[in-house]
Amino acid sequence: MTTNRLCETSWLHRVLDSLSAFKRANTPAALGTLRDELKALAVADDAPRADVFAAEGEQFRRHPIAAVESLDSSALLMYWPAGHATLPHDHAGLWGIEIVIDGRLDVDEYTKSGPADQPVLAFARSLQLEAGDAAMFTGSEYVHRCRNRSNTTATLTLHVYGGVLDAYTSFERDDAGRIVASRRVTVSDRPLS
């Protein structure tokens, strides 16, 4: 199987079916149901595996899933090579569900407050997600940092957002220890279709 053919699998069609059912309901309870359906799909026998994506190289990649724009959401498969980590970042106010399909992902969650030019990040909790586990978030104050802590094993995750995530804000400390916010444009790799 190649990543070009991944979207032809029955697994991916079931992901799209779950997103379509959510679009019709579109309630907070339906969001929880969507999370639970996607968690079950993450551990299905025909779910994709990180080693398939490793054949294309060992860099972090974001592969958009085609055909979700009409569902008022975006979905991506992300490949996390061993040791890869993101800066703390938001999701431009969109709700999101991030599910581990293969491997492990550590997620540090924060609550953002304060003015945009002087943000404050308060640590909320750490999650250690394995295959079938999910982080779900709503609200513009949500920020997280994701890490594949393994030195040897890649991770594959499914990310679903309540809209198109074409830009986000990342947060890092300057030399004086102040948190600096930087607006960034998302970069995606080859779409899966």
In words, what does this structure look like?
The chain has 193 residues and is an alpha+beta fold. It has a single domain (6-185), classed as Sandwich (Jelly Rolls), CATH 2.60.120. Helix content is 19%, strand content 36%. The protein is built from three helices and ten strands, in the order αααββββββββββ. It is globular and about 50 Å long. The two termini are 13 Å apart.
Give a nutshell description of this structure.
The chain has helices at 10-25, 28-42, 50-54; strands at residues 61-64, 74-80, 96-102, 104-113, 120-130, 134-137, 142-147, 155-161, 167-173, 179-185.
Q: Largest sheet, described in full?
A: 5 strands, antiparallel
Q: Mean of the pLDDT scores?
A: 89
What is the string of SSEs from the N terminus onward? HHHEEEEEEEEEE
Terminal Cα span = 13 Å
CATH topology descriptor = Jelly Rolls
Uncertain runs are none
CATH class: Mainly Beta
Shape: globular
Label the CATH architecture: Sandwich
Structural class: alpha+beta
Q: Any key phrases for this structure?
A:
single chain; 193 residues; alpha+beta; Jelly Rolls; 5-stranded antiparallel β-sheet; 3-stranded antiparallel β-sheet; 3 helices; 10 strands; globular
Write the layout of secondary structure elements.
Layout: H1 10-25, H2 28-42, H3 50-54, E1 61-64, E2 74-80, E3 96-102, E4 104-113, E5 120-130, E6 134-137, E7 142-147, E8 155-161, E9 167-173, E10 179-185
Antiparallel strand pairs: 1-2, 2-8, 3-6, 3-8, 4-5, 4-7, 9-10
Helix pairs in contact: 1-2
